[in-house]
Specification:
Elements lengths: L8 E6 L2 E6 L5 H6 L3 H16 L14 E4 L2 E4 L4 E3 L2 H17 L1 E2 L1 H14 L27 E2 L2 H13 L4 E3 L8
Antiparallel strand pairs: 1-2, 3-4, 4-5, 5-8, 6-7
Helix pairs in contact: 3-4, 3-5
Length: 179
């Protein structure tokens, strides 16, 4: 996903939320008491918020969570996986299965589904190679909102994507290939 810093800490802003991820051992003791750049950073943020009169939202003030959803991703820190949030992925898989089974779609719907899949597949880029015919589908009458019949190869690709959805994840603990 992204190269880690020496401290194992990555942070950013998502809309109006300050998000920081501290990568470290998955032991419960470290999760509760271990030192890390995240604790120093958020202690400074709390002081700065109070100094300028901003409110700290206690509901979103989560620290040392092994499982969380942020930045449009679901992190499973105990196992080390990151993926599209499971509810969204399951819905996407069902929708793709329905479109593949019926074999009828509009360009607008197909474009939207392809775009969402493009994001989901960033977690497992090799699966992108499945999407060949589906990117070449278009309405014979040229209208983006009219129904048209999908070809058999496009339907096969859609069904295969629906079945491979659970494999669209990345292992944050995998070593980089030295080559």
């Amino acid at each position: 996903l992204f190269p880690l810093t020496r401290s194992g800490y990555v942070e950013g802003i998502m809309i109006d939320d300050h998000v920081g991820c501290q990568f470290g051992p998955s032991s419960r003791e470290w999760q509760q008491e271990g030192a890390g750049r995240d604790r120093d950073c958020f202690a400074s943020v709390d002081v700065a918020y109070l100094r300028v009169g901003l409110e700290i939202n206690e509901k979103t003030k989560l620290r040392r969570q092994l499982v969380c959803t942020t930045w449009g991703s679901e992190f499973e820190g105990d196992i080390g996986w990151v993926c599209l949030p499971s509810g969204k992925l399951a819905t996407l898989m069902v929708l793709m299965g329905l479109v593949a089974a019926t074999g009828v779609c509009t360009e607008d719907i197909l474009g939207t589904l392809n775009g969402i899949w493009a994001y989901a597949l960033t977690y497992r880029r090799a699966i992108f190679s499945i999407m060949f015919h589906i990117y070449r589908c278009y309405s014979p009458d040229g209208k983006r909102d009219s129904l048209f019949r999908l070809g058999i190869w496009s339907r096969n690709e859609l069904m295969l994507l629906a079945m491979l959805g659970p494999f669209c994840l990345s292992d944050m603990r995998a070593d980089y290939d030295p080559r």
